[in-house]
Specification:
The structure holds 2 protein chains of 2 kinds. By secondary structure, chain A is an all-alpha fold. Helix content of chain A is 71%, strand content 2%. Chain A is built from 12 helices and 2 strands; from the N terminus they run H-H-H-H-E-E-H-H-H-H-H-H-H-H. Chain B is built from 14 helices and no strands. Chain B is mostly helical. The chains are: A mainly alpha, B mainly alpha.
């Protein structure tokens, strides 16, 4: 029972971190049809900035998180304008190459600037230690990750379902040229959602630094995990991504707890099985 | 009506001429490489092995339009098949080891093809990535067979035809590799021009129409995947024979991604492009990683972005297009 409970909490927290990082990728992929392999690199940049701000500048955790999110968005703007703009609507292979090239560059630069060692982001005293739930105590940081994930999911759901921007966003996802013809400024929608996606990735990178340690090969190591979440959930679907994160987080964490010697074997096996059964993702729609 | 046979005849002679030019070019490059780097034949042999992997990737990506980031699974399976045959079953004849590599690669191609072809677009890409990680984890776990992360050692191939020994200088391995590459190249030239090759190109352009014509795209693509696996297996076996060790890195995602980079650098959909991309990339890698290993990955990234932006058809495609347009101007 103890083990089941701690596995469940860890899986939930891990799934939520995955969700925060990958939901931006899912939305931009559904919207712009860009296979963006560099998304994990943005999460990594966020982690590095937060670590630098907290350790070298001595800022507080909240300030470090804010700096990481806005810093990453600012870094991503020239990348979007100069490189991503050219591959919207290009064949898949081109997009894969361009974004993998960007990932390699960011890894190389991170390795050069910050060195190959692991970076930690010191937690504030409030998030350290554990909380007593009466029958079990759990680490506060896990709880924090879960709450943040739920907040992001709720906020995104509200923004997409209830606001005018969300209406335009959904219209552009369904049919970009028709939306443009009806007067929706699709470039602005693209730019805003790209910025939000990158910001969320950076936030997730900081939030998950305890579970997914920040190091130069982060971008390559977890790139697959983020892509898997999107394709298992179905691009552009928030409930799908949430479900995929919980399922995959559960499988991965359970595998690590019960059969650590098999590494990620069962994770990838599950991914292959799910995609073979649902080639368009759990919540994917036929095109 | 009378013109038609002669037109096909000239086309045939022209393509055969291009084949001969291609074979000549490979031999000349091989000899020049031998004369320029007599002390570094191991690198040249590795280039040939990787060239076979890139050729095999070209068959599915360039000719069938399947984007995959897991093609090293086929290469690594071939390498492990050859290595296991030698280290565990005592099959040390280089030709039999190559055959084992072909079989191992073809089997991996069948498995990967059946799985990867179930999806399209992003899920297809994710499937290919998951497969390479699965193969990697499996090889890591089955350490009694594969040696795990220490690599599979104890491979000592017999002398070729009982005379030419695979020694430290690597001359035998190099010549063996060149001959293998030539044989594969000639066979693939026939393959891509055959009705089956044309069918695959048709599937890349418009699978629906091919289905309407009565052919099954899926079966054709799986066949192509098996052939591609066999070709990659030759490369893997060559690598196992020449280095006498098989490591987990031959089944890695990085190897797959690099193969794709080489293919696109040279130009997809042409065998010459695949060869050219491999040679240029591997020499570039050797030079840059020796000069400054720290910036190696950044350089590869910049190279990739530059190719996508400035030479989307790859080196060979761009060069061929340039020459064709010059010729047209003259006429």
């Amino acid at each position: 029972m103890q083990t089941v409970f701690s596995i469940a909490i860890d899986a939930f927290a891990y799934g939520m971190v995955l969700f925060v990082i990958s939901i931006g990728l899912s939305v931009t992929m559904g919207l712009m049809r860009v296979v963006n392999l560099a998304h994990g690199a943005f999460a990594m940049i966020g982690g590095y900035i937060a670590s630098y701000a907290a350790q070298d500048l001595g800022l507080g955790y909240a300030a470090a998180v804010l700096l990481a999110v806005f810093g990453t968005v600012i870094i991503s703007i020239p990348i979007e304008r100069l490189l991503y703009r050219r591959i919207y609507g290009a064949p898949e292979l081109t997009q894969v190459l361009m974004t993998i090239g960007i990932t390699f560059c960011i890894i190389g630069i991170a390795n050069y600037v910050f060195g190959p060692t692991l970076k930690t982001i010191p937690l504030p005293p409030l998030l350290q230690g554990s909380a007593d739930l009466g029958f079990r105590s759990i680490a506060v940081h896990r709880l924090f990750a879960i709450i943040c994930g739920l907040a992001v999911a709720g906020g995104l759901w509200y923004a997409i379902e209830k606001t005018a921007f969300g209406v335009k966003l959904r219209a552009s996802v369904d049919n970009a040229s028709m939306a443009a013809a009806l007067g929706v400024r699709t470039e602005i929608i693209y730019a805003v959602s790209f910025a939000v996606a990158v910001g969320l990735a950076a936030f997730g990178g900081v939030l998950g630094a305890e579970l997914l340690p920040v190091e130069p090969y982060y971008a390559l190591r977890y790139m697959v995990t983020f892509l898997v979440v999107v394709s298992v959930g179905g691009a552009g679907s928030i409930p799908g991504a949430l479900l995929a994160c919980l399922v995959l987080g559960g499988i991965d964490t359970t595998g690590r707890y019960l059969m650590p010697e098999f590494g990620e074997f069962f994770f990838y096996l599950a991914v292959i099985a799910i995609i073979c059964v649902f080639p368009r993702g759990l919540a994917g729609r036929a095109r | 009506m009378n013109n038609e046979p002669s037109a096909t005849n000239t086309r045939q002679t022209r393509t055969i001429g291009r084949d001969l030019i291609g074979i000549g070019a490979i031999i000349i490059v091989a000899v020049v490489g031998y004369l320029l780097f007599p002390d570094n034949l191991a690198l040249l042999t590795r280039i040939i092995a990787i060239a076979l992997l890139v050729l095999s990737l070209d068959l599915v990506t360039g000719y069938c339009g399947i984007a995959t980031l897991g093609h090293a699974a086929l290469f690594g399976s071939g390498a492990y098949a050859a290595g296991i045959a030698a280290a565990h079953y005592g099959i040390t004849s280089p030709l039999l080891m190559t055959l084992a590599g072909i079989l191992g690669g073809a089997l991996a191609g069948l498995i990967c093809g059946v799985i990867i072809l179930r999806a399209h677009g992003l899920p297809q890409l994710v499937l290919s990535i998951s497969l390479i990680y699965l193969f990697h984890e499996f090889a890591n776990k089955a350490s009694s067979w594969t040696g795990g992360s220490d690599g599979l050692s104890g491979i000592s191939p017999d002398p070729l035809f009982g005379r030419f020994e695979f020694d430290l200088w690597g001359q035998t391995a190099y010549v063996f590799g060149v001959v293998l590459l030539l044989a594969v190249f000639v066979l693939l030239r026939f393959l891509v021009r055959s009705p089956f090759g044309m069918l695959c190109r048709g599937i890349k352009e418009d699978p629906l129409r091919i289905m309407a014509m009565g052919a099954s795209p899926k079966i054709a693509l799986i066949k192509m995947y098996v052939i591609s696996g066999a070709v990659a297996g030759v490369g893997g076996a060559l690598n196992a024979i020449s280095t006498q060790v098989v490591g987990l890195d031959s089944l890695s995602f990085t190897q797959s991604a690099e193969a794709l980079v080489m293919l696109v650098l040279g130009g997809t959909g042409s065998l010459f492009g695949a060869l050219m991309g491999t040679v240029v990339f591997m020499l570039f890698e050797d030079y840059v990683s020796a000069a400054n290993p720290f910036h190696w990955l950044t350089m590869v990234g910049v190279l990739l972005i530059a190719v996508v932006l400035f030479a989307p058809k790859g080196l060979y495609g761009t060069a061929a297009g340039f020459i064709a347009s010059r010729l047209e101007k003259h006429i």
